[in-house]
Amino acid sequence: MKSAPEEDPEAIWLRDVYRPNEPNLTLRAVLGGVVIGAVMCLSNIYVFFKTGWSLGVTLTACILAFSAFQALKAVGVIKKPLTILENNALTTVASGAGYMTAGGNMAAFGALMMATTVRPDSVGMIAWFGVIAALGVFAAIPIKRQLINKEALPFPTGTATAETIRSIHDAAAGKGASAAKALAYSALFGAVLAWLRDAWKVIPGTIAPGFTIAGSTLAKWTIAIKMEVVLLGAGALMSFRTGWSLLLGGVLTYGFLGPSLLERGLIEAVSYKAVVAWTLWPGAALLVGAGLTSFALDWRSLARAFTGLGAMFNKEKRAAAAAQGIGAVESPEWWFPAGFMVLTPLIVVLMSVMFHIPIWAALIAVPLAVLMGFVAARVTGETDVTPTKALGPVTQMMYGVITPGNLSGNIMSANVTGGIGLHAADLLTTLKTGWLLGAKPRHQLYAQLFGVLAGAAIVVPAFNLVIPDPSVLGGDEWPAPSCVVWAGVSKAFAGGLDSLHHSSKIAILVGLGLGIAMAIVEKYASKRAKAWIPSPYGVGLAMVVPASNSIMMFLGATIAELIRRRAPKFESYVVPVASGLIAGEALMGIVISMLTVAGISLAL
């Protein structure tokens, strides 16, 4: 007896989940998303250049949106509360704007400032980020139905955001108000701490025991407790495995490797800059080796990444979709080639004019970046990690060969790859949220475009506000580890390895070997065993940030893990509290910087 055929998942969604008559992308959702996205953009720039970590926007944005509209309703400014689908659309706008600060963009921008004398025009950079992000949005169209509708890839952050939006809009549960209060109180704490530390200076920046290593205090080796709750918050949003891997890498780098380098005369002073000038090479190599190996081991995902393209040219599939009604709901697939044809010439012209990349080389970059974007989207859907650490160096290596010596071109061609992959994956993450909530996919695409265009206009002035002097990047105050790695990799690929010290070349080979080995072990280890295997990304990052950063992020990850294990009823507060600590300190730090630049005395 034959079993009944399974019903098409798209038909089930249209019948049981889709909410065609509820408001999605309203004017207030767009405006609210732009405002929250701008706040998150400022906050995330601060966090990124402090920690090297790109923090997600959606979970924080949906809580902020809910609490803001509840407050506006309470004081009579608005009559109707924000609906679930409006919150989803608002969160999509905010994510498009706030995630403009992620590694594929800011790592390249910061590396450009560090590695070259190029200081591109602000208007040109706004246009640059805008067109790259927009092409990333359109690149998500041909693979959305395959990855989300058909294969139902998890997109963990998108799924978590859908559950959060449901819970905070459930008035009976009261979870929305409590989550919003937790975020507000922790933000206030972070802001007050930053003021006491940086404005009134009644709290020290670091605390370290008086012990010495190789004749220098622990503080000089950066082994200290840093009074920055932004690092605690960032750690709480990581996995515990990444947190303890950061601690391991920090202890090995500054407690053992650094003193050994000093003894051998490979560094001449004890400071963060002196140590990281050498450890950059094995650290970057470890990150690149692990990223590319993980990328290669996931060849099935690589092959599947292109399966969504075939449907775009298949008339039967398009007709079947239209007959089911899904075609009228989804973004038309012809939008992708249309967007590609319109935006590619703009990107090529900007690459040529701003970064002196030959037109023929620029023409290679864009289709390569779109293909990499398809891969990044699938990997994000399966793992929740957008692999810019792997995709960027692939492009840098290729352009080091075809345009040798062009540092700015090498970095910014990788920005095309990283940026398109980043925004394609970001839109698909928010589309997963919308799929679970019954939102209109076209409205979310419009929302993402509003967000990325607003984010492009915000991110360049925000960078100039937070980092008025790019020469501070790579120092103890602004470690900018991702920028250090991108700049170092670019120098190596663009200028060759001959100029490096012999010990650095050996360190690169060792780092590559470790990265490859750790990625292979990570791939094939059981889930139980993997918990005890160091994360190559945690160890590699620890080699290019101060030890104090690693220590604080480890503490944050440990606190979050203890809550999950010992007090699970409070687990739902981890994300809002961590996000509040980050936002409060980051925004107060920006306010203090502005007041200082304006010459206003902050003395107690």
Can you characterise this structure?
The chain starts with 8 loop residues before the first helix and ends in a 7-residue tail after the last helix. It has a domain at 9-174 and 275-530. It contains 26 helices and 4 strands. A two-stranded antiparallel ribbon has the order 1-4. Helix 11 runs antiparallel to helix 25. The chain is mainly α and 604 residues long. The protein is globular. Strand 2 (212-213) and strand 3 form a beta hairpin. The model has no long low-confidence stretch (mean pLDDT 81).
Short description:
With 604 residues, the protein is mostly helical. It has helices spanning 9-16, 27-51, 58-74, 84-98, 103-115, 122-139, 141-150, 156-168, 175-199, 229-236, 240-263, 272-297, 299-304, 307-310, 315-324, 335-355, 359-383, 388-402, 407-437, 441-466, 481-495, 502-524, 527-530, 536-542, 547-566, 574-597; strands spanning 206-207, 212-213, 216-217, 225-226.
